[in-house]
Design goal:
The chain is α/β, with parallel strands linked by helices. It folds into two domains: 63 residues, Orthogonal Bundle (Tetrahydrodipicolinate-N-succinyltransferase, Chain A, domain 1), CATH 1.10.166; 183 residues, Hexapeptide repeat proteins (UDP N-Acetylglucosamine Acyltransferase, domain 1, 3 Solenoid), CATH 2.160.10.10. Helix content is 18%, strand content 31%. The strands form five sheets. The chain has a ten-stranded mixed β-sheet with strand order 5-8-11-14-17-20-25-26-22-23, with no helix packed on it. The protein has a six-stranded parallel β-sheet with strand order 6-9-12-15-18-21, with no helix packed on it. The protein starts with a helix and ends in a 15-residue tail after the last helix.
Amino acid sequence: MNAADLKSRVEEAWADRTQLQKQEVKDAIANVMAGLDVGALRVAEPLGDGLWQVNEWVKQAVLLNFPIQKMVTHEVGPFEFHDKMPLKKGYAAAGVRVVPHAVVRHGAFVAKDCILMPSYVNLGAYVGERTMVDTWATVGSCAQIGADVHLSGGVGIGGVLEPLQAAPVIVEDGAFIGSRCIVVEGVHVGREAVLGANVVLTASTPILDVRGPEPVETRGEIPPRAVVIPGTRPKTFPAGTYQVPCALVIGERKESTDRKTSLTCLLYTSPSPRD
């Protein structure tokens, strides 16, 4: 079944959920999940120059996959899971390093030379080559993580399922996401951007570029190579004036930043193109 046929079946089922009772529709959704698992399909894909195309029908297939699956017990050594989705397999063949207790669900793609510390990658996500998903970091459903990205300890990359979002989070190649950062609600982090520890980015978070004589406010997107730290600014409410969170773009990435992340390159099973 080619991509056009899969798209047609999924969109019909999305419009009419009774279609989910048909075996050919179940097969189409299973084929989409299999394609996501090996990276042949993506929820979103780069078009160049920072532009991305969201494949809405692929995301719809991920969502439709839940009601057609049954709860199954999965035993992994001494551990037991009870879920609708199987776990990903074949890490050695894919050239991925997986440290206990890293968990990836079937339907997520993890590229060659990725390193997964004890972490979680949800279905529909895409993780590019040589990316480090550090301890207790989470990559939400359908999130798109580029190559040579470092997701530091405790980072939370939001998914599209809870709550249902229109667009996935996108973190482009070479970005460094500092410890305990939260990136959710379809935020787009540009190529080689750096988020300092504890930056929180939602679709409504004010992003203030303070590199010039006057602040420039945007929302939802971090520029390429920008260095971002958490900040606050005053806002007046009926009860008084209080400091509310924002993100501050304070500079551009420098060579010194790259030196701080160079340890990751030593951990790859294959040489990094940056070496």
